[in-house]
Structures are given as structure tokens and as C-alpha cells.
Amino acid sequence: MHNVIQRLIERLPLDFRILCRQFMLRVIDLEALSIQADVTGFLGQFAGVLIMLSLVHAFVTYVGFTSFPNPADRLAFCWHMEHYLIATTMLVVGLFTVLSWDASFPDRRDVMVLSPLPVGPHTILFAKVSASATVLGIAILTLNCGSGIVVPFLVGVMHGSMWGFYQSLTAYWIAIIGASAFLYCSVLTIQGFTALLLPRRIFLRLSAILQLAAFGLFFAVYFLQPSFTNPSALADAQNQWILASSPSYWFFALLNQLNGTLSRALTWLAVRAWIGLAVAICGAAASLLLCYVRTMRKTIEEPDLVPGVHGLLWMPRFGGSLQTAVALFSVRSLTRSRQHRVAFAFYLAFVFGLALSLLRGELSSAGRSEVTVDLLMSTFMMMTFAVFGLRSVFALPVSLTANWVLRTTQVRSPEAYIAATRGSLLLFAGLPAWLLSAGLSLGFNPAGQVVAHLAILALLGWILAELCLIGFYKVPFTCSYLPGKSNIQLVFWAFFIVCLPLAVWIANVELDALHHPLKFVCMAAVFAAIALGLFGLNRFKAQSAVLYFEEIPEEVITTLKLSA
């Protein structure tokens, strides 16, 4: 099989194969990477995370299915998992689409490099689309490699025949691929026709807003969408408008239509899925073709960093001159660079999703609720995602060619630059997360416990900021990025195995302390001591630190071990 695929690939034109391979590696901006970066290994770590998630989904599905002896309960559980997996796949596809916002359209670098070469626009078009489809297909396959077999197998067990397994397997993958293609092509259609109808400069500005709006929309739908996984809820007249406006339920109905388990009353949902998929594919194809015909010449006219709007030159001050310079540089990097906006929005989307889940709970309650573990843990997670998200974005450079300016103008000690980075981290991540948590906490009682929790949350934000500064001896947005230096798989599972249980434990401890003033004072004292200890450690290390602007891997010397 491998040899057959290899021979088919070799039949493709050489220029197409080379471009497709390069576009696949450009899921990450190569200009932001270190000269010794291992891009394939970095992408492999993400694939490993998705495979582990799929295995977890498969295990949970099997255990849950076997715990229900009643066939009706088993069917309802399978429906619940089918809709959950379709919605999760659509969320991953949506995030991938936003993160690779410009991957399917020619950018300024493509036009400048490929225009002088004997490469036709149609070759660039097909190479771009093929590269995006390949990366997207790998993400879908790895996310469903386990659950995509276990769920059809359990449905086949209910049917009591091997034919039922094959039918369910085919229906599952058609629904998953159809839902992914619908969402991906819908985003391409919106992006393509926006680029066609608007001038290039306005499109670059609006593109950033569309990216942020897409992040918020995908997470809002995923967290706020109710789950209807039993026949009575699906047939309820009050839920029809939700089913009609939710694409995940369209393809859930499509899956069950192909499976032969969909009632006649819900056939219209499956029809809507087929129509939506056809419209999205046609719209994406039309927008891509028109963009490659009409907008390739305009892409060279505007840089990736959009010029600022002329207006008042006054800017607020954030302390001393160096602190103000680093803070303003950070603000302008986040507002002018699409790459950094999208990276930071990825973490803010989790904050937004947690805030929406809390807000939904407040709206569903009749009056003011008491402080619960869910409130405490959610605000802890919001602060964590905001601070660590901005810290990860700080590591991405705006322009490596401008590093010489910062190197030659380093007139202060490294300690002053690290202190300025700390201020920017607290100002643009810790403070907004704290204010958002304070606004969501207004619906809880008693007020004294809410104020006490906000004090603990402020100390937690300080502790997280100090943890992020350990070993971070560089100016934000100025050092090249070395992917793979931090193991994505290790960080991902450490969060679920260590950080999440730790947050639950701290939330339970704090909830008990909020009812006992002496325990709360002790807890606040411990948090303050940890924050001050980390602050002193960072200041001590900063006195002998040296700022660096290039991430390089540690040298490993391999010996033959021939000595006695």
C-alpha cells in the first residue's frame, strides 16, 4: 500500500510536490523560528496530543456504553457521544482554520518569490489547497483514530451484525469529514469574498477582527450549545430552532440518516447538512479561484504589519521610560501583527469559554448564587490561561531583522528589562482576567467572600507572573522561537494530570477558608509568601542575567565510550 501511494505521488509534477511540502511546513511562520528549529517534530507533538485525546474518548465511550444494560439507554449514550465527537471535531477544525487563516491564499512572500519563477498560479493554488487539506486531514484522522472505530463498533453491537458495524463506520467518517469540510469551506468562503469585495488595506484590518470573532464564536457555540441526545428532546417543538441553527446537529442527523436510525420527523436536518455542505464547497471553490485571478497582484502592495492610523500621538505612561517603552511595544505588537493576535486569542478563547459557562449558570439561576467551587476553579483557570497565554506569545518575535536595534540600544541592566516585562504581563494579562472575574462574581453572595476570593485571585496572578519570568531573560517579541524546546505533549498532560487537580484542590481549600476567617488569613499569608519568594528569586537571578535574542538548542556531545 505504501509503495502504491509513493508511486502515485511521484506521478505528480515536481514543482507541485515541492510547493506542497513547503506550504505544509509553513503552518508555523518560518520567519519567527530559530535557525535550528525542528518544525516536523513540533507538529508531531500536536498530532500525539490529538491521538491521546482520541484514545481517551474511545475508552470513555466503551466504559460508558457497558455501564448501561438497557438498550434505550445505550442508544441515548451513543447519540450523546456521536454529537459530542462531531462538535469537538468541528471545534478543532475551526481553531485550525483560524490559526492557518492565510494558508490557502497567496501572501506577499509567495508573490515576490514565486512570480519570477515559471510556476503557474493554478499550481500555487492547488499546492496551497492540497497542503491545507493534508494538514487538516491529519488533524481529523488523529483526533478520531480511536473513537472513530470504537463508536461504530458499539453501534454495530446494538445492531447485532457485522454489516451494522461497517454501515456505522462508513456513516461516522462521512459525517465527520462532511462536518469538517463544511466548517473549513465556510470560513474560506467568508475570507475569500471579503478579500474580493474590500480594498487590500481594509481587508487586512478587517481580517484581524474576523479572526478574533471566529475564535469567540467557535468557543461560544461549543460551550453554550445544549445537548439533545434522546428522541423526546429532539422531537420537542421548543428545541427546533436550536437544531435548525446548529451545524453540529445537522451532521449528527446526517450520521444517523446513513446509519438508518433517524426518524422521519428529523430528515430535514440531514437535508440541511447536505445543502450546507454543497453551498460551502461551491463558495470556497469560487472564492479561491477569483482570489487567485484578481488579488495576487494586490498582495504585494501591503505589508503584513498594517500601518497605524494617524491621529493623536499621546500615549499613556506605565511607570518609568523603559517600562512604558516595553508596554507600548507589547501593545503595538499585539494590535498590528496578525500572528500575535491570533496566538493570544487562542488562549483568550479558553478564558472566554469559561466566562460564558459561568455566565450561563448565573442566567439560569433565579437569584444571586452562593460562592461555589465551580466559580473559584473557573476564575483560577481564567487567570492561568491569560497569564501563561501572554507569556507564550511574548516568545514569538515580530521581526527578527529588527533585533539589532534592540541589541545596540540596551543601555539599562537586564534587571530593568525583566521588571518591565513583569509589569506588561500583569497589566495586559493579569489585570484583564481579574476584572473579568470580578464582573462575573457580582452575581454571587455573600459580598465579603467574593472580595476575599478576588484578593486570593490577585495573589495567584502575581505568582503565575513570577513563574513565567523564571529563565525568561529576553525582551518580549524580540527573540526567535525554537519549537519543540518545551514538549507539547508533556505540557498538555501535565495540565490535566497536575494543574487541573491542583486547581480543584485549591478551590476546595479556599471555599473552606472563606467560611473561617483564621484559615483565610493563613491561606492569604501563604500565597503572599510564595509570591514574595518568587519575586525575590527572579530579582536575584536578574542581577546576573544576560538578555538573549536567539533560541538555540543545547549542544549534546556524543562519545564512542572507548576510554577505559
Report the span from N to C terminus: 49 Å
Q: Give the low-confidence spans.
A: 30-36
Using the CA coordinates, give the radius of gyration.
26 Å
Alpha-beta content class: mainly alpha
Shape: globular
Number of strands: 2
From N to C, what is the helix and strand string?
Answer: HHHHHHHHHHHHHHHEHHHEHHH
What order do the strands of the largest sheet run in, or round the barrel if closed?
A: 1-2
- Mean pLDDT over the residues: 78
Percent range for β-strand residues: under 5%
Keywords:
564 residues; mainly alpha; two-stranded parallel sheet; globular
Polypeptide structure, described:
- The protein folds into 2 domains: 292 residues, no CATH class; 222 residues, no CATH class.
- The chain is 72% helix and 1% strand.
- The protein has 21 helices and 2 strands.
- Helix 3 runs antiparallel to helix 4, helix 4 runs parallel beside helix 8 and helix 15 packs parallel to helix 18.
- It is globular, with a radius of gyration of 26 Å.
